[in-house]
Structure prediction request, 168 residues.
Amino acid sequence: MIRPVALIAFLFLAVNTAFIQAQEKDTSQVSLPSGNSPMQNILPRFRGSAVVIDIDARILESNNIIWNETHQMTTIPGRPVEIKLVGENLVIVVRFTFIQNNSGGQKLLVAQGQIWVADQGAINYQASVQTIPVEFNETIYYFPLGSLKQENGGASIQVMLTLHPYEE
Prediction:
């Protein structure tokens, strides 16, 4: 005879295993090789409104580039793309969301930044949200830590963004 508790546990495990296997991997943060179309899984009705965001993140020290990383991400209005920069005592997460009104007129880029800095055993946290008017093929400069000139001659982080309409 099977105990009711064992039967319930078995059913619970079976259902959860099926649920986990049925979940799809979120590819919104994955850059695909140039041979694959990043839009292949997006419904055809969204392809006309899709945009490509070129992101060039770099660290400058005394006007010299000491680190650089480039990404090209495809998205649709309202769906954010995210970059994460991890340093020795610093973590920066920036989420960019492209927004366009229904008539195709005004275009905005919402930049949501989160910064964690470890300093002498304490962790400081800062969050910001900025709405930036944009046009296609225009380069936008975003400074997660503030302006280009850092105090005491320290390094600055610069993120350059360019939006393009998606073309197949």
Summary: The longest strand covers residues 107-119. The mean pLDDT is 74.
